[in-house]
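testing teh design pipeline on a random one, pls ignore if ur not involved
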């Protein structure tokens, strides 16, 4: 991205075939790919590469769609930095094929999640069958061992989950110090099975005996041996974050040790794999967002809230790429995120000059191609939100 007076330009747009644009990008030049490819819903899609089988005949729709996506995903993998990640929106028509294709291109071990996104809470009422209310996000790492994606958020942290208050006013909750997962036990985690000493009257906990203390060993609810979540050195380092209490278990009263888990500013919570419309927005809110900027031009854009949640899982200076930019939601979300938190994210959006459908809102508004819609939105984002706007790949 070129440098503006106040830093990098947030949004750049390139009109053209994304395969050509991807091929021209340097290796590892992108940190995050967030994209929404055309869904194979029975209508012809714009990226209609000539797909033929070994017998010379054109394949079926799934084969054609997969063959269109494969070289583009190969290029996406190449341009992703080793620490980078890929989010791809998809619906039921191609999610199985896309999952297999991503396993092939990225490797099964790079799979991070298949998120269900509740974009249409009312469900689609047209047609036969079920009222579909969801789509998916497939999430893959370039290299899972090095990926910087943080699958957590501050948005879903509920203060009510921290019902206790310390003398200094800080809120906290008690978590068992023992590991409640039976996969971790004295056989699989031998060094974490050891006695500690605690006084249920004063609450004090230590790794060595002291006056008034009783020996406490980690056990599961059924009384079988367990292990602690903390090592001896960590217990010694953080005694004030532990408390000894008498509790009532299945076999009567017993003494156990708990961690004081504090609520603090910036506290994050692991993201679930179902994202609700009330959290990330819906198709209706996405239409309203686009309408407020450039008019009602798309019937089913993605909400910026969805992309902003994706952005929040990565550092605030990531280089973002959307090779199937559509209405420009990704670039819009990047600008909103930067404006909110002072980040320096940049976004390269790519879209073909695919003609808009005759009679569509976009065509009636004078936008001859879908790329014209992307361009109009990102220009409006620069005017309303800031961050600037450029065209061209370099």
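output:
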């Amino acid at each position: 991205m070129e440098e503006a007076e106040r830093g990098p330009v947030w949004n750049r747009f390139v009109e053209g075939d994304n395969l050509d644009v991807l091929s021209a990008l340097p290796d590892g030049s992108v940190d995050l790919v967030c994209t929404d490819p055309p869904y194979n819903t029975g209508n012809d899609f714009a990226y209609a590469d000539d797909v033929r089988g070994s017998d010379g005949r054109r394949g079926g729709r799934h084969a054609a769609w997969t063959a269109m996506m494969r070289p583009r995903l190969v290029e996406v993998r190449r341009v992703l930095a080793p620490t980078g990640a890929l989010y791809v929106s998809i619906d039921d028509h191609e999610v199985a094929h896309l999952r297999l294709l991503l396993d092939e291109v990225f490797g099964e071990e790079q799979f991070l999640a298949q998120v269900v996104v509740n974009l249409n809470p009312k469900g689609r009422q047209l047609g036969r069958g079920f009222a579909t209310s969801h789509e998916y996000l497939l999430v893959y790492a370039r290299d899972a061992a090095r990926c910087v994606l943080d699958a957590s958020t501050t948005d879903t942290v509920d203060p009510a989950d921290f019902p206790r208050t310390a003398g200094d006013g800080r809120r906290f909750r008690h978590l068992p110090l023992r590991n409640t997962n039976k996969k971790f036990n004295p056989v699989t985690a031998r060094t974490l099975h050891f006695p500690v000493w605690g006084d249920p009257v004063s609450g004090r906990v230590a790794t060595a005996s002291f006056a008034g203390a009783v020996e406490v060993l980690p056990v599961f609810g059924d009384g079988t041996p367990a292990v602690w979540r903390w090592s001896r050195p960590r217990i010694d380092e953080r005694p004030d974050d532990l408390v000894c209490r008498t509790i009532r278990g299945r076999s009567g009263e017993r003494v156990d040790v708990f961690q004081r888990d504090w609520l603090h500013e910036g506290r994050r919570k692991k993201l679930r794999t179902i994202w609700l419309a009330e959290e990330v927005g819906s198709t209706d809110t996405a239409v309203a967002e686009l309408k407020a900027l450039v008019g009602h031009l798309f019937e089913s854009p993605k909400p910026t809230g969805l992309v902003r949640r994706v952005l929040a899982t990565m550092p605030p200076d990531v280089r973002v790429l959307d090779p199937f930019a559509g209405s420009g939601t990704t670039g819009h979300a990047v600008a909103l995120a930067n404006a909110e938190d002072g980040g320096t994210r940049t976004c390269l959006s790519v879209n073909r000059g695919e003609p808009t459908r005759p009679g569509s809102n976009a065509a009636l508004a004078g936008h001859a191609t879908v790329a014209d819609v992307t361009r109009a939105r990102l220009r409006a984002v620069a005017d309303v939100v800031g961050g600037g706007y450029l065209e061209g790949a370099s």
